Task: inverse folding
């Protein structure tokens, strides 16, 4: 159905261009850097529109290619995260079968560190902007003084 609407729209556009061409057959001067010539107005308009279409198509294809590469990279990242989740779920199931309660662990990338480690507790957590979680993030701290 969408293709039929596109074909109908293209046909209407072609009819409009044909009517426009009939009314714009006058020759107009076209100035080049190296000279000047006379061209029918419809050709000047059509060539300009065609060049604009080609330029926007090239830019759109470039953007589409970049986005496809980004999607592929993110899909690989999701697959790695899903495998990590599956591994952790299997470990949890094994602990539950054995009736053992494991110590809490902090998982960062490839390394696993026990939560009871003092070096982790002594350092405040930082968010992605490098701000300590324990800091007051309000812009105006004078409100507490009032």
Result:
């Amino acid at each position: 159905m969408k293709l039929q609407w596109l074909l109908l729209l293209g046909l209407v556009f072609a009819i409009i261009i044909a009517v426009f061409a009939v009314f714009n057959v006058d020759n107009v001067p076209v100035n080049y850097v190296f000279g000047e010539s006379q061209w029918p107005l419809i050709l000047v308009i059509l060539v300009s529109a065609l060049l604009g279409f080609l330029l926007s198509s090239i830019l759109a294809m470039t953007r589409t290619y970049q986005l496809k590469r980004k999607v592929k990279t993110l899909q690989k990242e999701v697959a790695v995260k899903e495998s990590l989740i599956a591994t952790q779920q299997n470990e949890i199931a094994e602990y539950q079968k054995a009736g053992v309660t494991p110590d809490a662990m902090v998982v960062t990338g490839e390394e696993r560190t026990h939560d009871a480690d003092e070096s982790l507790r002594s350092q405040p957590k930082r968010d992605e902007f490098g701000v300590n979680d324990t800091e007051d993030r309000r812009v105006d701290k004078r409100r507490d003084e009032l």
